[in-house]
């Protein structure tokens, strides 16, 4: 069926249809192993593609169950699952496929982009973030403090749009630090099967060690430790990492520059200038999400529109308020392509123009 009948031009009838890409490889992450598969696989299938899903080797069973559920209602071979590590992913990317849709780290995304460039394969890359939260003095400070902590710790901080840098207007520094520490004390690190626990273990010892290195680097470079939580009994034998709240995190510290992916609240101050707030928020290679807290709607709009990020939440966490009609997109080093929204569905097909210099078929003329 034609997507659009454009009309006559120089006596010919023009029609736009859309073609499926062909074979789409979906490379899924470990931190949202079911959601991310569905967000990329469903629109690819609806567009008429076949799909090969490779779950993260860290969370293989979730991906297998999702694909099994899809296979139960689809014709044989339309969606398949392949398990393995990065070498398996590389083999898929370099194979006879037409498109790669991947969620993961920026480093891995660059490798995939380089591999796909040889055959000009189409790409969707949702990559990392170093997401800032700007708190102006006129914000609802208790709410801002709650959100700064909760959305730094959600899923143990292992979310690409976690709050990772908190910029607090200097005039409210002391008050806001007290509020943040009070919020942090409400959280308990422990076994996820224990209802008292609010922060579980990290995905691996390697990831825990990365976060620990960033925290130690910040403290050695002059950051202030405001709070460090306890660990459960035997926590060091597992992948648990304490909740940390740090202040005076400098711009050159690893904790300010590198994606953290851990339960850490990292704060520093700014003068209150909108221009400085924007410059600080944009002072990163990433551009996935940002957050602005103020009760002045005009100020929020001015700042939000100047921040280079795909999503900006004003007094809210954009992921929890995401509208499926809006695209979820990265700017700068956070990738390109879309989750959700019309753009997220259309990207898995290509427009084709048909130009008829004979009478157009009935399915075209019926649209005139």
From TrEMBL:
Family annotation (SUPFAM superfamilies): ALDH-like (SSF53720)
Active site: 126
Alphabetical list of CDD domains matching this protein: ALDH (cd07078)
PROSITE patterns attached to this UniProt entry: ALDEHYDE_DEHYDR_GLU (PS00687)
Molecular functions per Gene Ontology: oxidoreductase activity, acting on the aldehyde or oxo group of donors, NAD or NADP as acceptor
Residue span, Aldehyde dehydrogenase domain: 9-352
Keyword annotations of the record: Oxidoreductase
InterPro entries documented for this protein: Ald_DH/histidinol_DH, Ald_DH_C, Ald_DH_CS_GLU, Ald_DH_N, Aldehyde_DH_dom
Family that this chain belongs to: Belongs to the aldehyde dehydrogenase family.
PANTHER family, sorted: ALDEHYDE DEHYDROGENASE-RELATED
Protein's recorded name: Aldehyde dehydrogenase domain-containing protein
């Amino acid at each position: 069926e034609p997507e659009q009948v454009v009309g006559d031009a120089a006596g010919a009838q023009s029609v736009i249809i859309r073609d499926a890409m062909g074979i789409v490889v979906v490379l899924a992450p470990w931190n949202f192993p079911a959601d991310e598969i569905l967000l990329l696989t469903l629109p690819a299938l609806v567009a008429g593609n076949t799909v090969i899903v490779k779950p993260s080797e860290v969370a293989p069973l979730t991906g297998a169950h999702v694909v099994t559920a899809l296979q139960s209602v689809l014709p044989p071979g339309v969606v398949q699952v392949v398990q393995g590590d990065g070498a398996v992913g590389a083999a898929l990317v370099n194979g006879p496929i037409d498109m790669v849709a991947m969620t993961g780290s920026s480093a891995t995304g660059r490798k995939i982009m380089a591999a796909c460039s040889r055959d000009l394969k189409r790409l969707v890359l949702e990559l990392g973030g170093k997401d800032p939260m700007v708190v102006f003095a006129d914000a609802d400070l208790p709410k801002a403090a709650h959100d700064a902590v909760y959305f730094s710790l959600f899923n143990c901080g292992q979310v690409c749009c976690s709050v990772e840098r908190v910029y607090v207007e200097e005039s409210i520094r002391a008050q806001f630090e007290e509020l943040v520490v009070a919020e942090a004390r409400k959280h308990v690190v422990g076994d996820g099967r224990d209802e008292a626990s609010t922060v579980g273990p990290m995905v691996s010892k390697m990831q825990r060690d990365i976060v620990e290195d960033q925290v130690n680097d910040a403290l050695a470079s002059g950051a202030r430790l405001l709070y460090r939580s306890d660990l459960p009994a035997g926590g060091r034998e597992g992948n648990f990492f304490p909740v940390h709240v740090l202040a005076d995190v400098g711009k050159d510290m690893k904790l300010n520059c590198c994606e953290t992916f851990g339960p850490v609240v990292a704060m520093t101050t700014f003068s209150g200038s909108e221009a400085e707030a924007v410059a600080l928020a944009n002072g990163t290679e990433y551009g996935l999400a940002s957050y602005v807290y103020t009760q002045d709607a005009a100020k929020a709009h001015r700042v939000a529109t100047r921040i280079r990020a795909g999503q900006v939440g004003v007094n809210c966490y954009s992921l929890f308020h995401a509208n499926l009609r809006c695209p979820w997109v990265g700017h700068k080093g956070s990738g390109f392509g879309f989750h959700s929204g019309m753009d997220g569905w259309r990207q898995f097909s290509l427009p084709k123009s048909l130009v008829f210099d004979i009478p157009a078929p009935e399915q075209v003329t019926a649209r005139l």
